[in-house]
Design brief:
This protein has 310 residues and is an alpha/beta fold. It has nine helices and 13 strands. The strands form four sheets. Strands 1-7-6-4-5 form a five-stranded mixed β-sheet, sandwiched between helices. Strands 8-13-12-11 form a four-stranded mixed β-sheet, with helices on both faces. The chain has a two-stranded antiparallel sheet with strand order 2-3. The chain starts with a strand and ends with a strand. 51% of the residues are buried. Bound molecules: oxa(dethia)-CoA (UT7). The site of oxa(dethia)-CoA has 18 residues, from helix 2 and helix 6.
Length: 310
């Protein structure tokens, strides 16, 4: 019982949609620049009353309903986020309260930026293996708009708000994990909410990403004794279409093996991978028995990859 089975998934989006033309109302930019440099066409930002908490709760409810899971069966809750509404209680505690989850379980937030969901998933797996429990509720939720300086065109056009959640059970299934950190490369920095907006050395993060994705994919394939032909989907953190396209070229695989939805949501940090999983499950693209590679990378710098059968 070393792997995980995906029982259910759900996602939540705020109500406010901003097109690239809308962003040109904040900074000197254009739909042409954003589309050609990133592939992003629109993003969702929280409106009044919408936060990381409300998105996480909604995504979690949908994932629980999709899994058909009784709340008593949840053995831990982890929310990957860099934009929690409060320092305390954690976003995970607010989900725990809203969903009336059982008392005797660990519930906490985890911060590893855009790699956060995969760190959280591997942590949840370790906790289920160590302590038992029927299933884990793992969430990625972000209100990136709360970290942005809307006068900084280097960052504000790139990010969006969203949450994705998934319920996983321990399973006798294959599972490979790699991760890493370059704490010396703090080139994507965000401060306390609403007091110090995030900044980013875009080109350096770009270079890091286009070497990290192929290396992570190769490491997972080696660890699992597989080739890319054995893999149904590669689901990367959705930061920039050019980063994914460069990885496709480097690995020499068909582009349609890499899922892309960043045109609609922009970079939702820790939410991007569970959002993709939930959206793909909902549309029937992701079905039980498929082998997937998940790759997250971002601020820290951090990165992580998981190869598993769904
Ligand atoms: O979540 C993971 C972490 N983040 C990332 O993965 C982001 C990784 N980096 C990137 O995606 C890209 O580096 C960016 C999209 C951030 C930037 O694209 P780029 O092709 O590397 O552009 P650049 O930074 O080289 O900038 C080119 C030009 C500059 O003007 P000059 O100096 O050539 O006159 C920028 O000032 O584009 C300018 N620019 C913009 N112009 C219009 C920068 N941002 C904008 C903008 N609109 N929003």
């Amino acid at each position: 019982m070393n792997g995980l089975k995906l029982l259910g998934a759900g996602y939540a989006l705020p109500t406010r949609v901003l097109t690239n033309d809308d962003m040109a109302g904040y900074v000197e930019t254009s739909d042409e620049w954003i589309t050609t440099r990133t592939g992003i066409r629109q993003r969702y930002f929280c409106a009044e009353g919408e936060t990381t908490t409300t998105l996480a709760i909604e995504a979690a409810r949908r994932a629980m309903a999709d899994a058909g899971m009784a709340k008593e069966d949840i053995g831990c809750v982890i929310v990957a986020t860099s934009s929690g509404e409060y320092a305390m209680p954690s976003t995970a505690c607010l989900v725990h309260k809203a969903l009336e989850l059982p008392e005797g379980i660990p519930v906490f937030d985890l911060g590893a930026a855009c790699a956060g969901f995969l760190y959280a998933l591997d942590t949840a797996r370790a906790m289920l293996l160590a302590h038992g429990g029927k299933a884990a509720l793992v969430i990625g939720a972000e209100q990136m708009s709360s970290l942005l300086d809307m006068a900084d065109r280097n960052t504000c056009v790139l990010f969006g708000d969203a949450a994705g959640a998934a319920v996983f059970a321990p399973a006798d299934a294959e599972y490979a994990y790699v991760c890493g950190t370059r704490g010396d490369m703090a080139i994507e920095v965000g401060g306390p909410r609403r007091s110090l907006p995030m900044t980013m050395e875009g080109q350096n993060v770009f270079r890091f990403a286009v070497s990290t994705i192929p290396a992570t994919v190769q490491a997972l394939l080696e660890a699992g004794g597989k080739t890319l032909e054995d893999v149904d989907w590669v689901i990367c953190h959705q930061a920039n279409r050019r980063i994914i396209d460069a990885s496709v070229r480097h690995l020499g695989v068909p582009a349609d093996k890499f899922y892309k939805n960043l045109d609609r949501y922009a970079n939702t940090s820790a939410a991007s991978i569970p959002l993709a999983l939930a959206e793909m499950k909902e549309s029937g693209k992701l079905v039980s028995g498929q082998r997937v590679i998940l790759v997250g990378f971002g601020g820290g710098l951090t990165w992580a990859g998981i190869m598993m059968t769904i």
